[in-house]
Automatic annotation (TrEMBL):
Domain of life of the organism encoding this protein: Bacteria
Organism of derivation: Fulvivirga kasyanovii
Major localization class: membrane
Pfam families for this protein: Lig_chan, SBP_bac_3
Protein name: Transporter substrate-binding domain-containing protein
Length: 360
């Protein structure tokens, strides 16, 4: 009886091991469906139908290490998210931003790239008069004017100290004399040459001589400082950051992290089907701003040759973590993560990023 029981247990164990091994072998031999969407520079669809780009290079290195057989299948963004949620794709290698909403729907690998949202604006939106007035009353401009007045007053007081007793008609005592000294130093510096005030004493003329040559040197510096504070900066636009988006006609790409940011912050906006369409609308002055992921937007602007019409402003906000995504509870995540971390910490990953002119 004991021998029969042990024999049955052994048979059950061997059968279970065989079934488990068969399932693992089947899983390893299964051809994975890798969901992609043309998203340069991370996923680039070539004319011959092949895919290249940052995400493709990273994934193919991981698949090679894990000996995974796969094929790519392309979707639009909404189709890709739907296929991922339904399990029609095994891995999505598009640079999806990890958000709280998406975490509830999908599994994500460790992030492989960290970036931020940015704003693109039309260069013709540059408000020169507004920028001029803003700069005219800026702290930099006021400092330059104040420093200039201090220098003028210093030399005016010096010449007044020498002239106040010997040239009372032109400089005189008290505040009137100091004002006349300031007037003289300003006229001398600007080389207007009215001649209504001129030093008569030796000390006054020495001060005047020093001031004449000094003014030639410093006037150029002050002129440059004042000019720079009044010059309209080429990046001085009506939109300087995300706070200004409520005041302009803003556009986002459907189902993107940019659209989610605008919705979360109650910023009115329109929606475009893809980034190319959005940027073309911006270049044609149909909208005032486009919100999207910075590296993808900059790369697309260069590729569409829109640099003369569209610019990404320096303001950066809303950090984005790019990860591969998988259907919920996928066993592939635990296998992919260690290899992914090894890859992005290796030299080849830096070479890939440099190839596409991206910082790590």
């Amino acid at each position: 009886m004991l021998i029969r029981t042990l024999t049955i247990l052994l048979i059950l164990i061997l059968t279970g091991l065989h079934t488990l091994t068969a399932q693992e072998t089947e899983q390893e031999n299964k051809k994975l469906i890798i969901g992609v969407k043309h998203t340069p520079p991370f996923i680039v669809r070539q004319q011959n139908g092949q895919y290249t780009g940052i995400s493709v290079a990273l994934w193919e290195n991981i698949a090679k290490e894990l000996r995974l057989d796969f094929e790519y299948k392309e979707y639009d963004l909404n189709g890709l998210l739907g296929a991922l949620q339904q399990g029609d794709v095994d891995v999505c290698i598009n640079p999806l931003t990890v958000t709280s909403q998406r975490v509830e729907q999908f599994d994500f690998t460790q992030p492989f790239f960290i970036t931020n949202l940015a704003i693109a604006v039309d260069k013709t939106q540059q408000n020169k008069w507004l920028s001029f007035l803003s700069n005219f009353f800026s702290l930099q401009f006021l400092k330059a004017i104040l420093l200039l007045l201090m220098v003028l007053l210093s030399f005016g007081i010096l010449v007044w100290l020498f002239e106040r007793h010997h040239n009372k008609e032109e400089f005189g005592p008290g505040m009137r004399g100091i004002w006349n000294g300031l007037w003289w130093s300003a006229v001398t510096m600007t080389t207007v040459g009215y001649g209504d005030k001129s030093p008569k004493t030796i000390g006054g003329r020495v001060v005047a001589l020093i001031w004449m040559f000094t003014a030639i040197i410093i006037i150029s510096g002050f002129t440059a400082s004042i000019a720079s504070s009044l010059t309209v900066n080429e990046l001085e636009f009506a939109v300087k950051g995300p706070r200004d988006l409520k005041k302009v006609n803003t556009l986002a790409v459907r189902a993107s992290s940019g659209q989610q940011y605008l919705e979360n912050n109650n910023i009115p906006h329109e929606v475009a089907g893809d980034l190319k369409t959005a940027l073309e609308q911006l270049a044609n002055e149909e909208v005032n701003a486009v919100v999207y992921d910075e590296p993808i937007m900059k790369y697309t602007i260069r590729n569409l040759d829109l640099n003369s019409k569209v610019v990404v402003i320096p303001s950066k906000f809303a950090t984005q973590y790019y990860s591969f995504s998988l259907p919920k509870n996928s066993e592939l995540r635990s296998r992919i993560n260690p290899v992914l971390l090894s890859e992005i910490n290796g030299r080849e990953w830096r070479v890939i990023l440099d190839e596409y002119d991206l910082e790590r």
